[in-house]
């Protein structure tokens, strides 16, 4: 008969024989965020308010706690926790004052001033401290997609995609739009005392659902006196939420249509950028760790539709609040320092509004799949179906032939960068080649040079970025002329 000591020894040996369950690690992430509170679009020359600055700063601080802090369960493996390494992070925003300033505010929260840690020792032995208590400079590069978003009430006016503009305009000729326009006519006219300083009687209709909601929403936040916000008692909670619901319907239908995917061109471009950035993290064995991009709410709505998120929750058909954000994480349970792509998965998260305190983004399933985490190969396959990843592909999808599309081939298959959906013989599963990242299972036809999507420049100086620059001045002017009557 075994002694008590023998039983204890056998139990310990049994525990040692159990397989070790590795903790999940985050290898990299892509964040897409909306600006903070701003002035009303209809008034022109929109600007980020102090409230909006605070909102994006707080959201950036929350992501610092998630991805940057060493003690966080979601800490990105190997990312610098105190002093930013500019080779690990890239940030971008369109040529738009509100979005650029929002990006700066977010980054201040993501990597706050480092105090005395932000010092440099010179050759003569003297030490130089960074000003503003160790303020950290993170470059923000410029993308042409979405230029002037916050000064324009027409979603497609900043896309310059001809077929997308036509598709969105089709909504104004639909039975659904006519029904909403007629059934809400009396409601909008009843708000004349709130609107008549800014809108004409003919403009007070469902046709301007978002512009009207935006104007009254801003007024409800900032206009404290009756002189600056006359008849404010008319804006009851019931009226406010009705305005919001109508604006949601109006904007979602302009940004996405199941039978006309081109309408969601903004979401397709974002999907391509996410795929490219995450693939680059894998291709470089994690040297590129975090990408941050700022954009307008229309891009959220377009992506929501393409990723089949409204099937998860009807809330994904609504306009995201100020400082909302979504993130795509590369995760693994492998114990390898950097695993093969077959051991890597993607998780999608979204948070509506400002992230504060202990709040965390919520995980949602993508593409109608039953699981919250998609294997990298599946993510590549599904994303490739909705993504636009090159100049030539954009020209082909949008039907643009002028400007930068003059020399673009109607076929996008001549030159390509590939995204690997499977583990190859190399440890990472994706090897570097002269033309870019080489893969085998899923090939996207794209133009070389996509890695310039995330090119950084010094300080907060702005430099032009060669990104799907199909949004040319020529096509933009044509787009505005065609859509102006329908959108204003």
Automatic annotation (TrEMBL):
Which residues does UniProt assign to the signal peptide?
1-23
Bias (Basic and acidic residues) ranges: 473-488
What InterPro entries does the annotation carry?
His_Pase_clade-2, His_PPase_superfam, Histidine_acid_phosphatase
- A single Gene Ontology molecular function, please? phosphatase activity
Keywords, sorted A to Z: Membrane, Signal, Transmembrane, Transmembrane helix
Q: Transmembrane stretches, by residue range?
A: 433-457
Disordered, as annotated region? 469-488
Protein's name according to its UniProt entry? Uncharacterized protein
Q: Which species?
A: Penicilliopsis zonata CBS 506.65
Starting at the broadest rank, the lineage of the source organism is: Eukaryota, Fungi, Dikarya, Ascomycota, Pezizomycotina
């Amino acid at each position: 008969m075994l002694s008590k000591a023998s039983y204890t020894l056998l139990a310990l040996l049994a525990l040692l024989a159990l397989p070790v369950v590795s903790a999940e690690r985050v290898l990299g992430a892509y964040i897409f965020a909306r600006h903070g509170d701003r002035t009303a679009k209809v008034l022109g020359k929109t600007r980020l308010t102090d409230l909006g600055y605070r909102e994006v700063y707080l959201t950036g601080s929350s992501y610092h706690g998630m991805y940057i802090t060493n003690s966080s369960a979601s800490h990105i493996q190997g990312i610098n926790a105190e002093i930013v390494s500019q080779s690990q992070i890239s940030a971008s925003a369109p040529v738009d004052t509100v979005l650029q300033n929002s990006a700066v505010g977010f980054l201040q929260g993501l990597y706050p001033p480092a105090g005395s840690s932000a010092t440099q020792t010179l050759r003569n032995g003297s030490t130089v401290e960074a000003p503003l208590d160790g303020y950290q400079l993170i470059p923000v590069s410029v993308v042409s997609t979405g230029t002037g978003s916050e000064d324009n009430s027409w979603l497609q006016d900043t896309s310059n995609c001809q077929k997308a503009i036509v598709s969105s305009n089709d909504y104004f000729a639909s039975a659904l739009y006519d029904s909403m326009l007629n059934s809400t006519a009396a409601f909008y006219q009843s708000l004349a005392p709130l609107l008549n300083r800014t809108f004409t009687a003919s403009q007070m209709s469902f046709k301007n659902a978002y512009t009207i909601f935006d104007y009254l929403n801003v007024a409800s936040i900032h206009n404290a006196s009756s002189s600056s916000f006359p008849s404010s008692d008319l804006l009851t909670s019931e009226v406010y939420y009705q305005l919001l619901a109508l604006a949601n319907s109006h904007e979602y239908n302009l940004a996405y249509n199941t039978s006309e995917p081109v309408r969601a061109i903004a979401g397709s471009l974002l999907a391509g950028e996410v795929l490219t950035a995450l693939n680059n993290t894998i291709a470089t064995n994690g040297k590129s760790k975090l990408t941050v991009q700022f954009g307008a709410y229309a891009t959220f709505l377009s992506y929501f539709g393409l990723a089949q998120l409204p099937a998860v929750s009807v809330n994904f058909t609504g306009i995201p609040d100020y400082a909302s954000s979504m993130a795509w994480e590369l995760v693994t349970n492998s114990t390898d320092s950097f695993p093969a792509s077959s051991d890597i998965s993607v998780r999608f998260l979204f948070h509506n509004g400002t992230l504060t305190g202990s709040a965390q983004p919520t995980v949602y399933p993508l593409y109608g799949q039953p699981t919250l985490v998609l294997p990298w190969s599946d993510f590549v396959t599904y994303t490739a179906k909705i993504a636009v990843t090159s100049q030539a592909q954009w020209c082909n999808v949008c039907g643009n032939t002028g400007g930068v599309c003059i020399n673009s081939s109607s076929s996008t298959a001549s030159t390509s960068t590939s995204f690997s959906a499977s583990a190859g013989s190399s440890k990472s599963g994706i090897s570097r080649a002269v033309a870019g990242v080489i893969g085998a299972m899923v090939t996207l036809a794209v133009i070389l040079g996509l890695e310039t999507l995330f090119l950084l420049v010094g300080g907060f100086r702005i430099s032009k970025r060669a990104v799907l620059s199909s949004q040319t001045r020529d096509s933009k002017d044509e787009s505005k002329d065609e859509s102006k009557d329908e959108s204003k």
